[in-house]
Amino acid sequence: MSTLEQIRAASDPEATPLVSVVIPCLNEEGNIEQCVRAAIEALSAGGLSGEVLVVDNASEDRSAELAAAAGARVVSEPRRGYGSAYLAGFAAARGEYIVMADADLTYDFGEIPQFVAKLKDGAQLVMGNRMDNIKPGAMPWLHRYVGNPLLTGLLNLFFRTGVRDAHCGMRALRRDVLDTLDLRTTGMEFASEMVIRAAKEHLAIAEVDIEYHPRGGESKLSSFRDGWRHLRFLLVHSPTYLFIVPGTLLAVVGAFVTITVLANIDILGRSWNIHALIGGALFTIIGTQILGLGLCAHTYGTYFMGEKDAWFDSMRARFRLEHGLALGGAITVAGFASALVIVIQWIEHGFGALGQEKLAIVAFEMLVVGLQIFFSSFLISILGLRWGDRDNSR
Q1: Whether residue 366 has pLDDT greater than 80
Q2: Domains by residue range for the chain, with CATH
């Protein structure tokens, strides 16, 4: 098939292609023709029926014109953003399989058949892995040795994806999983969202080793801004690591310090006293508050965002509002009783100077923690109210 025939086949509006190659494009007139032609040649070489779809993301140069002349179908997305461009491209794609790649010449479009082969073998999302084949000058050392390993490591820790290069821009997926993924973000964090959603939905994820080449033209990335957007997205989608883990750690440390001081146990060769007790009480109160926020975040994610978390599902199956109210009420009553003892002693001593500093701190700690648990339980119940009504109506 000639190059002209390839272009016509790729742009035929009546065809139902097997593969849609989606390329986001923002001011890439120096690269876009080469990318489109390379994608068309890769489809032809692999014997794959396909289309090349370029999403013009409000370019201010001739990118859209050149892409169309090279044989691509051009879709316009005026709202700028990496995620915005891909969401528009996915909506317009007709292929059973979608291959994603940037328009900056960093990826070899000749790798497309490898991605499609993985999809044909049953994978639902195929990630490229650049880290073993980075060409000289292709990736700044900060991205290669700090940013990408750190963010990929956190993503694997939080969501257990097992991927080696979570932010590779060349990847492929089945079009029929788009509804399952329910992708929404509009910026660079779109790359993380796709992997996180795939992991949470237990999709079959495969990897392909690819080469990463120096960029053609000027980079649109901002290392710290885009890195923070990825990190922020990872954290807000993992209430367990954002809230539950640090909250539990603080609460446990605070309780340990409180018990140690009250029991006069020597730690590190010395006894701890009133100042350590204040610190322990503060840790316990803050930790309990963070735990409450984490449980509320889990509840909101489950009932309103369709999130799935085995740990939280197990907890909500075992515990009800009454459990939280009973625990919070018991701790509150214990704190109130301790405070009452102090008041009675104060009255008995003619309203003189108080000498129950430790008991006062513990009473305050229990009152605050008990009330936090009590009212957090109500808030969690309110967040799940409609879901609970639905369950009870069955």
Answers
A1: yes
A2: 3-236 (3.90.550.10), 239-392 (no CATH)
